[in-house]
Specification:
- This protein has two domains: 96 residues, no CATH class; 131 residues, no CATH class.
- Helix 4 packs antiparallel against helix 5 and helix 6 runs antiparallel to helix 7.
- It contains nine helices and no strands.
């Protein structure tokens, strides 16, 4: 039976995801993040309050804008559903403990980083620093002891250093440098699931890469294509954290 707390956390996550969508859309554009009404992407008219209800507005409107009838991307309802679901999983994993609000904030900032990287192939420095700090606090509060947190910190440093090395050796062609601090924060966030998460990230990236190659037109050459790695890192680390599946028991 679904508890009222689970429903509440799902709704909270969906609402925050809606705000994150605004942050990602306006960041580095000169528009205010905190003020100004949302506008239709097609006709630029201001959207009424009933058109801004997370998830529900999309389905009530049949996936079309209230003002001009243009088709609305699934981008917003999918991210709202995703963060709502993650909030429920976090609540079920941690309970109503002191680490819960910090984990929820970490996941929220992580979503903003993933969406921005997906759209622009870059990780904004202010969001990245905020995530690493929140992840460090969350990891410290979630650790069973200071010794356990120290082990997690060492693992996070090793993972980040390996990605930084890939960046240096490839001269930035294989991976962006910002992926290193992102992985550092993710490792701190998930604790003992860090190494499995790191492995899952590359597995997921490999599968997606194979799919992209298989779908490209025959005879075409893929040159100069930038693929954001932040979504794979986030997916891999969170998958390891929530499933606690370790493909390499040695770690």
């Amino acid at each position: 039976m679904v508890s009222l707390f689970s429903v509440g956390f799902f709704l909270l996550g969906a609402i925050i995801a809606s705000f994150i969508g605004v942050v990602v859309a306006r960041l580095n554009t000169g528009e205010s993040i905190l003020t100004g009404r949302s506008r239709c992407d097609a006709c630029a008219l201001q959207l009424p309050p009933h058109a801004l209800v997370p998830i529900l507005s999309y389905f009530v409107s049949g996936g079309r804008a209230h003002c001009c009838g243009a088709r609305i991307s699934l981008y917003a309802p999918l991210t709202e559903f995703l963060l709502g679901g993650l909030f429920v999983l976090v609540y079920q994993s941690l309970g109503l403990g002191v680490a819960l609000p910090f984990m929820l904030l970490s996941i929220s900032v992580l979503l903003a980083l993933v969406l921005y990287d997906f759209l622009h192939q870059i990780l904004p420095f202010p969001l990245l620093v905020t995530f690493v700090v929140l992840a460090a606090v969350t990891g410290f509060l979630s650790a069973s002891s200071f010794t356990a947190f120290s082990g997690t910190l060492l693992t996070a440093l090793l993972i980040a250093a390996s990605l930084a090395l890939v960046h240096v050796i490839s001269r930035g062609r294989a991976m962006g440098f910002a992926d290193a601090p992102l992985a550092f924060g993710l490792a701190l966030l998930v604790g003992s699931a860090a190494f499995p998460g790191f492995i899952f990230s590359f597995w997921i990236g490999a599968v997606v890469g194979i799919v992209i190659l298989a779908r490209r037109p025959r005879g075409s050459i893929m040159t100069g294509v930038e693929v954001p790695f932040a979504p794979y890192l986030a997916a891999g680390f969170l998958l390891a954290y929530f499933t606690q599946w370790n493909p390499l028991p040695l770690f």
